[in-house]
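Sample A.
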Amino acid sequence: MAQKKYLVAKLTSCLREDKIQLWKPPYTNEKKEAGKEMKELVQKYSSKLNINKNDTENMLEEIRCKAIERGTGNENFKVTGIARLDIYLPRRKSRKIPLETNLFITGKELRSQIAQEHALKENAIKIIINKKQLDLGKTLEDQGVTHNAKVMVLQLEQSDEETKRKVQEEELQCKKEKEINDKMQRTKKGLEILAEREEYLDPDSVPYLDIANQTGRSIEIPPQAKKALVLAMGYHEKGRALMKKKEYEIALPYLLDADKHFCECSTELLNTVDNYAVLQLDIVWCYFRLEQLDCLDDAEKKLSTAHRCFQRCYGENHERLIDIKGSYGREKVLFLRLYLLQGIGHYHSGREKEAAEYIQKASRLYEELSIDPDKVDRLSLLGFSEQEARLALRACHGNVEHAANLITNRREEKAQIRREERAKRRQRREDINTLKSMGYSERAAQVALHNTQGNLDQAFKFILDNPELLLEDDDDDPVAMDQFQVSQESIDQLMYMGFSRESAEQALKVFKGNIHLASQTLAHYGGVLPASLQLSPEGSSPSEESASSKDSPTESAGSSSSPTDEDMETDAVNEILEDIPEHEEDYLDLTLEEEEQIIHEYLSYIQVPQH
């Protein structure tokens, strides 16, 4: 299959160089049949490319017929508005099938039409167009689908065999499809919850995602950019977890969602992390393993983007990596896959010289990065994991002693980072307790300390300057503020401090009798509660008004009054966390088994006599 694509690409390139248009006379007559001059072309290109005449004739005729078909389709679209779509079916002999349709049908109608015409189960397929999953509820035109678009069909069903128990099979497939869709929805929900959560929450009780640099230390990112980055990286990790299981059909939609969220991040941010480059590699790899590279028009562009991003992150000669990590052996696996995919792309485009160059570069890297199993076993006996062993051996060029030292040092660095984080959490807890002892709620203390970088004095002022935080209450007492019974003794105490009776009574109602908070707030605002804290004439409390106008960050992150919903959200978050690897360099730990097989396959194609 790959060799035929290569030869067709070579013939197409020769025709383009010779400015030959097969769909026009003298190569095609009025009846759209092949002209006699085609025989001369067969003789010419058969000799030039060293292909037997029958194969040359068949491929030229295929190119000619497709050109005519495309031209007819273009004319038909101009006149009738009926578009021609190229349908790429999953793992079949005749994979590219034309389909004619108007662009005003919905995605669901297109899916139904494809399923009916090609004997596929409608609920067992997903459709990708323009690197996006087709929205079943919108029209094709609304989704940017155009004439001659490439439509990739993903089949979620794993088994090809037909059994007699068709009804049970369909039920199982429907159940599987529902499970996949439910899982995608849970992933989306879990990532949105984690993306909204702030660092000021207690990670021991409420998990949140943090962004770290290549040494494992947290990095500061603006909130909006961080949300997009967390979503992008979360979808990417989910897709990578599925790729490890070779479930490419299910992985691809997650990777495309990750790509969409990465595009919401600033260029400056993308230039500082290698995640975006790795994602581009993973997307192209997925298309390749699904045998659908033809559907990815910009595969070459994605690989070039990955290469440029690696250079910016690592340095032209990996100098930044060497400065940070001391070596760049681990990252070489990314370049191996990059060169391999670039070589495959060149081969499929008929560029044999470039294909040979890149595939041989990948082959040399494979030889360099192959790990001796005995060395992995030796490190395992020292108490290190296989993953640690592989990564360290690649970083240390196979030297076992150096690898053991590297793992030990890295473990100590990570332990030191954990100790520092624990110390920060202890200090934060002490500061929170200090503010709570002054009458402020736990969440108000968390938010204030977060916004003042942990400065206790500034946090105190921050709470007073942001009255909505004063309404936060750790007490579960449901009594409304306007119904709270204020004692005369408390009013007298505040009046003794110089505040008016009206202000004293209102402040005590708002703070449910907390004299400390009432006096501090009145003093800070010149004896009168700020407008956002004052009770409305109708008697509704300011907390009710603020809650109706604006959700708190924790509420927008998915808090719920229903215990069942809360459990579901916890499950969704836990599913995300399960797919996030413990080792920060997990994405570099490729066994290279797939790469080895593909390198050998393509080397056998290009190692032929050149004429």
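Sample B, a different protein:
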Amino acid sequence: MTTPHCATNYPLGSALPPFTQHAISVSLPTWADNVGYEEGEKRVADAMVSGYPRFFIHLSIGKLARICEQKFGAPNEKCLLCPSKKIADGCRSFMLDRASLAGTPTHVRLVQYHIYSEDTPLPSAQPTVELHIVLFPADAWPFAKQFWQHTGLGISSRFAVYCLSLLPAESPNSPASSPTSARAPFKALNKHYSVKRAPQSLSYGSALPLSSNSQDILSKDQSIYLEERYGRNLPLSAGSYAKRAMRRRIAGVLVRDNWEDCPNGPCAGAHDVEVGPSHRGVKDVTEDDVYLLPTGMTAIWTAHQLVLGTQPPVKSVCFGFPYTDTLKILQKWGPGCHFLGHGLDSDIDALETIIKQELSTNPSALPIAALFVEFPSNPLLRSANISALRTLADKYDFLMVIDETIGNLVNVDVLQHADIVVSSLSKIFSGDANTMGGSLILNPRSRHYATLKAYMSTTYEDTYFDEDAVFMERNSRNFARRIRIIDENTLAVCEYLRSRSISGGTSLPSPAIKEVFYPKYITPENYLSCKLPEGGYGGLFSLTFTSLAASQAFFDNMPFQKGPSLGTNFTLACPYTILAHYFELEWAAEYGVEEGLVRISVGMEEREGLLEGFKFALRAAEAAT
């Protein structure tokens, strides 16, 4: 018998992938660990040396924040670090607005910090790192955290590491978190947007323990070796080439996708590379219609800002049960949204009823500004009737924003139906789970294209850190080949699991699985309408079980990695509802997102080993029923 692949889970709180300085997932190997994470249990918090970047403050970001609080902060102040003044201004506006709505007005001030290497003479022509520090009273941290989590606009861990490399080294006897530690003077230019106060040091959030977990504490030389071992040693100046290569790759215009590196960066980003008509279903889309963002949520937030900036101030629609922060963005910025959380064909009738009601109130007004939909959705893998929604959008002149992250551009063609397409590049486009990124595409065939393009031309700023882009481009070179392998693996796993599920008509006397949520089985006609001829059904599926005990037994006995995120080259699972909706379980259940739902992102492991691993977990679940 083939033994299960990857039969050892990494310790609680360690980085996934292991030994990865900028890992974007974290090991939460048991159901109890996930509950403990949500409830803030000390044993879990103390073990965390990594986490998903919009939910866990990377240790390097935390260290840089403490330095900034010590240098610029007043007593009882915390800070959030931003890569541009525009983002810092947006954070301040959001915090003041949300604090006012909560009946707890606060104050927020900004500091612009230019960091030079301590060896750089001033004045100097050498570039500086521009860091924008948002300072606020400690009790306003929840509002700052909302901005950071929903928008994905904070600095990246690589950005923080680069800043720290330019600052003087700390004394070994003076930990960064010590409020009284003396520091060498900083060589910097400081521009304050408000009056500076006496500096003090404060901790950055309440869940930033400096763990001694030896598995994830690597020396600088070790980290450099691990990154260069796989050829990711392109110079930072290669960022512009990397970004151009990715935009071409996403636009589908590369005649031949060259995976080699030229002297100045990726060959696919060279000025003289051959490009042709797009194979994305809209032939006239070009690299100039693709915008890169620091995270997938930044792409969604930017799309919503684009809607707010070009449409009248009316509500948008969230169609289907989305990833949690998408709904939060639509609710917390602008006039709000109509939420049609099931995303079924019957909801299209409900949508038209809402539109007609809005028009009856004000016949001359636009009834809704835009409709946001995932294709398929996360975590229920439900595919909306995109053609019917497009017909409504044309009839009533609202924008359609489609998130193609789960379907991905290798498997489905949604661009022809959308005005705007967004995606999280952090997922399968990268696969290595060691960098973040997002993309936004404008459809040049859209009737709104000229307006949308003009708005983006005047408002878009590139805050995607070059080093993150270099890693993302390198990871993405073989993404189409990886997706094919993962599609086939996932299909084999789902066919087996469904054969032993109630929805699959199993004859087992006491089955453990109720439903396998996978595009082939859930609203398949809608998925097939957008599926490419050579496309598959993706690498993500979810399971519901006949009892919570069965859910827990299945999850705890899975011999695969367990943690947040998806689209990794290795199989990764999480109790999705526990992690995403722990404090609103009843609300999520109203839309079919059950407490015991387990979401699984299948990787590139050897197929027989994968199947044996799932059989092992299923035997435990069936024994628990």
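Observation for Sample B: The longest strand covers residues 129-137.
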